[in-house]
Design a protein that fits this description.
heterodimer, A: 396 residues, mainly alpha, disordered C terminus, B: alpha+beta, 2 domains, two-stranded antiparallel sheet, 31% helix, disordered N terminus, binds iron/sulfur cluster
Chain lengths: 396, 300
């Protein structure tokens, strides 16, 4: 099977949209400066009852789930051998690499004693505390971010190889090595995310008394894993549709609508697992308790059901709009589930409350803005997106 | 070449089973307090709420005052445990009655904070059972705050170089020349309490003493020593007045099982001997190689 080769998009960088992103970057930097100079309390609404806010729940936990596109597409192309999805690999890997790098950046903003982070991989005290799920997450996320950049590196190396200069030598040397190591790197690219995405759910197993009983279950790791794969595909769909529009590339609707069925199936599995677990463990009554948590629970269930339904019906249609709406619904359902476990369904008691501050939101938006700017820069300069270069550049 | 749903589900199930589904691994053994464990016994019925222990705790741990202004006059009045307060006395109300309550780290027998600390900055001393904090390793991730069922560890939200703040049983005040268990640690709060409402000692001795009080004065107390079994057992034990439930004091119904017993059993099941991740890696590598070879042959 032959595919259109990925080529750089070209075009000018400084568009009005890019200007807006720069503004968000500046605002995020300002809020981040306050955080580093005056402490976390000055810039955030986090407190001793809710020690984790949106930087963890959204930037890291939702962000890396959306960054699971690389993992999800790799499963499809390299494990299930569905070569026709090959054109999705590079854009998916790039978004994942950027998503994980953004998550890692958010961690540096979030941890109080960031200057000690280097001690984590080096086993401070000479031993690793493997009972800590967070240790596994930290090590896996560090390793996987590196793996993702290696996976996407051929896009850069191919480009550098063609241009005379100091990078040409490096590219000539590195490209064959990367190609040789590719199967091993890909295998890590499957195992590491499976490990830490499920462990992001395991982190709340220990919160027996603080996490609401509709969310606390031994199936937290399984639920997080299943939903991250669906969210990964959804992110790939959204990214493809927007890139096609912004950079005037052909939209692979046929390929994308095949993903619709997969996402529908995954969302159904997630929903089934979630409901069966609650029924079997005798917690269904809590869902009819007519309180805030029951409402949030049904909102989650409804979102997932709507997402599965929308995608199931848009399977063969090649209707980009319907597909896009379905993908957004999957992202919303998975995102809400994650935020609920980390924040909404978490109650430390003693009247503690949390709602993100302006500073926290600005830092989050700033990180997303930088991520988007780097994405735009890279697809313009390097061969990521499939198809021919647009004659007059794009709109983004 | 259309991917059937069944194929997809099988593939996913394999990955899922390997990486996420709790295997029916045996639950981890219940941890028991070391024979040398030390702790405190707080008897709410003896406490008169003088707060001498709160002031002394700050002094002994060089913690700044926590100022509040009441009717124009300043007080050192911490409302709760916080980044400058390791010990606090609060008033609890139950029915028409009131009682005093002392809060500080419970020094759990099977501490959630130690289980989750990725770097080992929080650790449980193998012989004394004191749960200690080492700021030089701590990255400030605050997972300990999420995990502690008693909301004990506090964080310096207002500092550019924050730390976790919690009672370490005044281990820094233990000295070889002091008598008995005071060689190990020497809680300042116990030293100053004018009523003996909070006393320091070996956990086993304190438990015996608490049970003796329950037996000799059954009308005075609720018939339970909080911390004997709760949360898997704690090294700080509590007695409360009859009619004032422990919940009213702010001691939650956490059950007798330590939270890490559950979370560690599940994670241990998933990662038992690293079999699942290694198998998943091997299977992935083989499949990728096979598919690649096939593609090369087709391409040739
Ligand atoms: S009370 Fe909290 S901080 Fe203290 S040992 Fe137990 S889990 Fe750790
Ligand atoms: S904040 Fe520090 S002490 Fe608490 S879990 Fe994180 S590294 Fe450990
Ligand atoms: S043992 Fe020391 S640190 Fe702990 S509450 Fe008593 S005085 Fe404070």
């Amino acid at each position: 099977m032959s595919h259109p080769k990925p080529t750089p998009v070209g075009g000018k960088l400084l568009t009005p949209f890019f200007g807006v992103l720069l503004l968000f970057w500046a605002l995020g930097t300002a809020a981040g400066t306050v955080r580093f100079l005056q402490g976390l309390g000055a810039a955030s609404a986090m407190n001793d009852g809710y020690p984790w806010g949106i930087w963890i729940a959204v930037d890291v936990v939702v962000g890396t789930a959306l960054g699971s596109g690389g993992f999800a597409v790799a499963l499809l192309v390299y494990i299930l051998n569905r070569g026709k999805f090959h054109p999705l690999v590079r854009p998916a890997l790039l978004t994942s690499a950027l998503g994980y790098t953004a998550g890692a950046t958010a961690i540096v903003f979030d941890v109080g004693r960031y200057w000690n982070l280097w001690k984590v991989p080096l086993a401070y005290n000479g031993r690793y505390n493997w009972t800590s799920g967070l240790l596994e997450v930290a090590l896996c996320v560090m390793a996987y971010t590196a793996v993702l950049w290696v996976e996407i590196s051929p896009a850069f190396l191919e480009r550098w190889k063609e241009q005379p200069g100091p990078l040409q030598g490096l590219a000539r040397f590195a490209l064959p090595l990367v190609e040789k190591a590719f199967p091993v790197v890909l295998a890590f690219g499957v195992v590491l995310p499976a490990m830490h995405q499920s462990t992001l759910g395991s982190l709340f197993l220990v919160s027996v008394t603080k996490l609401h009983k509709l969310w606390h279950t031994p199936f937290l790791p399984a639920l997080f894993l299943v939903s991250c794969v669906g969210m990964g595909y959804a992110a790939v769909v959204v990214e493809s549709v927007f890139s096609a529009r912004a950079f005037r590339r052909p939209l692979e609707t046929r390929m994308l609508s095949d993903l619709a069925g997969i996402m529908a199936g995954l969302t159904a599995v997630f929903l089934g697992l979630r409901l069966v677990d609650i029924v079997l463990r005798g917690r269904l009554g809590l869902a009819f308790a007519l309180d805030f948590h029951a409402l949030v629970f049904w909102l989650e269930v409804a979102l997932a059901a709507v997402a599965a339904g929308m995608l199931w019906t848009s399977r063969g249609t090649r209707d980009a709009g319907a597909l896009l709406r379905g993908a957004f619904a999957v992202m919303a359902a998975g995102g809400l589930y994650r935020v609920d476990v980390y924040l909404t369904a978490f109650d430390p008691g003693n009247g503690w409350r949390y709602f993100p501050s302006v500073g926290e939101i600005l830092v989050t938006l700033g990180i997303v803005a930088v991520e988007t700017m780097v994405y735009i820069y890279i697809v313009r300069k390097y061969p990521i997106l499939a198809g021919a270069p647009a004659p007059a550049g794009g709109r983004a | 070449m259309k991917l059937s749903r069944r194929e997809l589900l099988t593939g996913l199930a394999a990955a899922g089973a390997a990486a996420a589904v709790p295997s029916p691994a045996e639950a981890r053994d219940r941890k028991v307090a070391e024979a040398g464990s030390v702790g405190m016994l707080y008897d709410s019925t003896l406490c008169i709420g003088c707060r001498a222990c709160v002031v002394k705790c700050k002094e002994a741990n060089q913690l700044p005052q926590d100022r509040a202004t009441l009717n124009g006059a300043p007080y050192d009045a911490p409302p709760d445990l916080n980044g400058t307060t390791k010990n606090v006395i609060k008033l609890a109300a139950a029915g028409g009655r009131s009682a005093f309550m002392k809060s500080q780290c419970m020094h759990c027998v099977d501490p959630a904070c130690v289980s989750v600390c990725m770097i080992g900055a929080l650790a449980k001393n193998a012989s004394t059972g004191i749960v200690t904090y080492d700021k030089d390793g701590c990255v400030g991730c605050r997972y300990c705050q999420v995990a502690c069922p008693f909301n004990v560890p506090k964080f310096n939200w207002d500092k550019a170089a924050p730390q976790i703040v919690k009672c370490e049983l005044c281990r820094h005040r233990g000295e070889p020349k002091k008598p008995g268990v005071r060689q190990i640690a020497d809680p300042a709060c116990c030293e100053v309490c004018p009523r003996g409402a909070v006393v320091y000692g070996k956990r086993s001795d304190l438990l015996q003493e608490a049970q003796r009080r329950l037996k000799t004065q059954p009308d005075r107390y609720e018939a339970k020593v909080y911390g004997d079994q709760d949360a898997g057992g704690t090294q700080v034990l509590y007695l409360t007045a009859k009619g004032v439930p422990f919940r009213a004091l702010g001691l939650p119904d956490v059950g007798d099982e330590a939270a890490p017993a559950l979370s560690e059993s599940i994670s241990h099941g998933i990662y038992y001997g690293m079999v699942a991740p290694v198998a998943l890696f091997g299977a992935a590598l083989l499949t990728i190689r096979k598919n690649r070879k096939q593609a090369d042959e087709e391409g040739a």
